[in-house]
Amino acid sequence: MFYDYKVGGSAAHVFCKGRCCVRFLINFRLRNAQKMKAPDDFDKKLLRLMQQNNKFTADEIGQEVGLSASAVQRRLKRLRDERIIEADVSIVAPAVAGITVTCIVDVILQDGNSKALEKFKASLRKCEEVAQCYFVTGTYDFVLVVQTRDMQHYESFAKKWLMDNPNVKHFYTHVVMDRVKTGFSIPI
Question: The pTM is what?
Fold first, then answer.
């Protein structure tokens, strides 16, 4: 199967049969990531601060890192334009939305061809209970982070999105007892 793959302005036309193209895509991503301008020391300081609190003003950041407010704004704009900063978001406490159950779900598909994989990915992108979805190597095809109001809600989710999906061969649910550490910041 042929498909187009695009990262940061660079594209490739790839032939895939099943999962054989994974190595190519990883190498393609790495080569294109290397084309990004490497963050300098000021950028790294900005990124560390923005990961702690993205509501800092340009003046506050400038005082902390030793740059003018306008220099901070230019750098932040470039970091966003280059997708080094992917998003500015607010993280809402799950309890506010009535979310009391978090599950980690390992999924094995019956059919691993590229069309089936893309169909499964597309369906999960539409599912509001799936907070995160990872296509992984190893025993499982996907690892999901699912957030629901209670176990009855999880059961409804599992029936609709997993049990009733003919391409889901097996799934294994791990109910989270305690969120020991969560976050999206990366070490810089």
Answer: 0.70
Domain 94-175: assigned CATH number? 3.30.70.920
Average pLDDT over residues 104-122: 94
CB under 8 Å to 148, separation ≥6 — which residues?
A: 99, 100, 101, 103, 129, 154, 157
| pLDDT score of 134 more than 90 | yes
Six token digits for residue 81: 């334009």
3-state secondary structure of 2: strand
Domain boundaries, the chain: 2-34, 41-81, 94-175
Topology, domain 41-81: Arc Repressor Mutant, subunit A (1.10.10)
33 band by pLDDT with thresholds 50, 70 and 90: low
Fold match between domain 41-81 and domain 94-175: no
Residue 102 or residue 9, greater confidence:
102
SS3 148: strand
The β-bridge relationship of strands 130-135 and 142-148 is: antiparallel
